[in-house]
Amino acid sequence: MDVKGQAAIVTGGGSGLGEATARALAAAGAKVAVFDMAEEAASRVAKDIGGVACVCDVANGESTEAAIGKAKAAHGAARVVVQCAGIAPPAKIVGRKGPHTLEMYSKVVNVNLVGIFNVMRLAAADMLALDPLDTGERGVFVNTASIAAFEGQVGQAAYASSKAGVVGLTLPAAREFAPSGVRVLCIAPGIFKTPMMAGLPEETQRSLGAAVPFPSRLGDPAEYAKLIMSIVGNSYLNGEVIRIDGALRMQG
Asked: Which family is this sequence assigned to (predicted)?
């Protein structure tokens, strides 16, 4: 799909992987709606790229309906939806202070998995009603999981299981939407230099990067965005989970 002139939604678009994606889509001519919980961050990116900022809690139905309505009013129904919103609070199932709280586990799953499903169900209702392009496509969803979905570490029980759910959502959604020409894909990133990672000491970041076989460094969000653009542009990619991790396999 050529994104020039097409409407796009990027969740978590105010920083990190989402910001890089929003900028790449806009640079290619897409009309981008930047969804983020942080109004200031969403507004900053939207202003830079000539898009529209939409404050959105992806885990909340009403908030997401309002954000999608605002984006649709500004740009029309989205043909490209990239989901990068997520949280990753570390906690053992049983730690020094006792069992993992059920509230925190539920929050992680609600944001990382239910949130992705929530945006998909609402955006798909509009996308499926669009006229097909010359390629036969009506649109594409790209959801973000993590290599933790396959190799979760101690302290990542909530995060890893939520991301495994995102992986599991990919194929049934792709199969359901296929007759209408809507593709669904998933990216599983390794360790990237996002705001969360940037908050760690420089020595820790270097140590993490050194564990990556090649290139031995943290990923650049622009590299994630480049993969997004390749996925969107290649109409034969569908129903797949793509790792972008420099061949890293997390150890237990």
From this structure: Belongs to the short-chain dehydrogenases/reductases (SDR) family.
Alpha-carbon gap, residue 229 to 234, rounded angstroms: 9
Residue with tokens 């990382």: 112
159 given a catalytic annotation = yes
Domain 7-193+220-244 classification at class level: alpha beta
**Those residues with Cβ within 8 angstroms of residue 113's Cβ, 6 or more apart along the chain or in another chain:** 162, 163, 165, 166, 169
**Domain limits of the chain?**
7-193+220-244
Other residues' Cβ atoms within 10 Å of the Cβ of residue 195: 12
Give, as one character, the DSSP assignment of residue 111: I
Coil, strand, or helix at residue 216? coil
Q: What is the pLDDT of residues 2-34, one digit of tens each?
A: 999 999 999 999 999 999 999 999 999 999 999
The SS3 call for residue 136 is coil
